[in-house]
Design a protein that fits this description.
The protein is an all-alpha fold and 255 residues long. The protein is built from 9 helices and 2 strands, in the order αααββαααααα. The chain has helices at residues 2-22, 34-49, 62-101, 119-134, 137-151, 161-202, 208-226, 228-240, 242-254, and strands spanning 108-110, 115-117.
């Protein structure tokens, strides 16, 4: 009977871990094999289960078991969603930069998201992935996953107003993060637009569109290169908050 309870505990932890890894940054990319992702989820579940007390009731019936399984999958998805919010902001920032400096066409292939993306967006995604791995954030996130059982035991999740508010606040922060990262390039693009608008009045014979296009691209790429270090620091600061955000969601779900 103890073996059955231990196996059920491992399976519930595996469902939460696998659901989190399904949309976890870097590990959820299409280039990451599904078999390796499942094996990693099984390994993490084995390591976490060995340090957990028995959380499965002895008189568990199949209806309650299915309910707990669905709950654990939703909890894992919420953890993965919170972990990936910054990368959504980076995708948005890359799209804004591409439009401002005229590099939205032709799009290139981004293997991290398996989608077509402009060059600035791909560069920012690679930068964020390297910072993510170099800061050992995947280790800290797995540690936060283990600590989540202190606040949110198996089957103890309850969806309330607090967790919905937390998710909405963090989701709305995507636009603020993207605006902060792209502010210098937007300012330069706006300045160039104003300057050429004045020149079009002073020199009507000038082809403002063709002339400003090249200047915007050159100036935008220059500013993008000069602010790359600031962007990396900005990304690193937000990455440091991810384990706390996951634990905060676990606390709200456990209340």
């Amino acid at each position: 009977m103890n073996f059955d309870l231990d196996f059920l505990t491992w399976m519930m932890v595996f469902l939460r871990a696998s659901a989190m890894l399904a949309i976890f940054p870097v590990f959820s990319s299409p280039g990451f094999p599904v078999q390796v992702r499942l094996a990693l989820g099984a390994l993490v579940s084995f390591l976490v289960t060995s340090s957990l007390p028995s959380m499965i009731p002895a008189n568990l019936d199949w209806m309650l078991g299915i309910k707990i399984m669905i709950t654990e999958v939703l909890v894992g998805l919420s953890f993965g969603f919170m972990s990936r919010l910054l990368f959504y902001a980076i995708d948005l920032a890359g799209g804004i930069i591409s439009m401002e400096i005229g590099l939205s066409l032709p799009p290139s292939f981004n293997p991290l998201s398996n989608t077509q993306a402009a060059a600035p967006g791909s560069i920012l995604n690679y930068m964020a992935a390297m910072i993510w791995l170099s800061m050992d954030m995947h280790h800290w996130m797995l540690l936060a996953f283990k600590k989540s059982y202190l606040y949110l035991p198996i089957g103890g999740a309850h969806m309330g107003n607090g967790v919905l508010t937390q998710i909405f606040v963090k989701s709305s922060g995507i636009f603020m993060i993207a605006a902060q990262m792209t502010a210098p390039i937007i300012a330069v693009s706006f300045t160039i637009t104003v300057v050429f608008a004045v020149l079009s009045r002073a020199v009507p014979q000038m082809n403002v569109f063709s002339e400003s296009y090249a200047v915007k691209t050159l100036a935008g790429m220059t500013v993008f290169g000069l602010t790359a270090q600031l962007m990396s620091q900005h990304i690193g600061n937000y990455l440091n908050r991810l384990p706390e955000d996951v634990l905060r969601v676990a606390q709200l779900l456990g209340n």
